[in-house]
# Entry
Amino acid sequence: MSSGSRKFGLSKSKITSFEQCPKRLWLQTHRPDLAELDAGAEARFAAGHEVGDAACLLCSGGIMIEAEPDLAAALQRTQELTSASAQDPLFEATFAHDGVLVRVDIMEPDGLGGWHVAEVKSSTSRKDYHVADLATQLWVLREAGVQVSSAAIRHLNNQFFLTEEGNYHGAFVDTPSLEDAKPIALKRPKLVAEIRSVLDGEEPARDPGGHCHDPFPCEFVAYCSRDLETARYPISSLPRTGKQLAAKWAEHGIAELKDVPAGSFTNAVHARIHEAVLSGVAYHDVDGARRIVEDWTFPRTYLDFETIAFALPRWLGTKPWEQVPFQFSAHIEDCEGQVTHREFLSLDGKDPRRACAEALVAQIPQDGTVIAYNAAFERTCILRLAERFSDLADDLKAIAARIVDLLPVTREHWYHRDQGGSWSIKAVLPTISNSGDYAMLDVSDGSAAQLAYLEAIAPATSEARVAELAQSLRTYCAKDTYAMIEVLWHLIGAK
# Structure
């Protein structure tokens, strides 16, 4: 396509898209209809806005620059406020240079005629792309004649705990970033020229890869992957070093594990996976699994939590992005193989921890082994509840002390080539059971469970819809715990 020397309007987010992948920005500009936003995008945007609003509220006397009736008005208002003898912080101050428009999250006067610039982020640490965002702003500000004396990424403080409802003093930390951003800012004119050249041309050619998900999931992955022939058993699926090994074998024109000569892998796990792919026969060490599991006493409780994490903590004693359990499922197996099910679910939007802790103490047997899949997560959830509720601490710690992990047992004693290099419960279950695919569920993974929770607690959600979501959550969490029973029985050849 050709559009002459059209000058495309740019922003810091568009420049970030280009730096992730030039093709992504080209498609955002010319073919936005091809985008497929992931289910969590709206929740991430909402979290970002909530964090930004909180950061502004902590700057007393600040002035919000509204883009009303349009951005031209915001540019004019910003010029008025920055050219005067500024004494108040500015929010969303708006500047433009060479067709690049930026809105600065927070600008605070330093008292000497300059400004401290804060780029607000909802993460608990500074990322490389944060500095790149800041660099774009510094370049535009410099060209606009604004004196910046200091600049920082203002991110959430992972040492902050909410001690008073709505009080977020101390929730943010500034990581100084001016010196790191300056060299990047100097290269922005050249980069902007390159971006415009790409946008003025044909759709760039670039194959999918790691950049499709770093630093953000790209909304055009499906479009870019539509015609690719993907390996059924790719070398890249090997755990830990799969990508490096895939690059090595690609030099020999080999992408499929089945095309790698037998005996090529020295790593025992890789060799085991390779053999399963070549032979089509699953690796299954029944005796090894039995030796471990025979020490797991009855009643055996198979336990799984679903949790929610808020960027800004909502409940006393929690910190940014802390995982708070709002649901658990527990399948309990006795020595005769009889199984009963118990569960807990809180969808009223109130702090669920006390009710969850009480339900655990009441419903989990006081003896026997507690089995989880990737047990560190369940153990951590329980121990945090014990820290919070001293009257329940002894009982909760006793539960935590009895937790064992089914994941490493599965990893060491089972592999079917259709797992694709993963030992997640969702990858393993279809290889040992016909009990149904997770994809058929309305809630099919942990991320979907969090989205269901957020929808359920939203004021606009009807009672009927909350009931639907509750049933979907119960079905999903129960499937996770019963799946553990199926996996364990299969590992030891019990049924």
Notes: Residues 463-491 form the longest helix (29 residues). Residues 1-5 have pLDDT under 50 and may be disordered. The CA atoms of residues 54 and 168 lie 7 Å apart. The two ends are 63 Å apart (CA to CA).
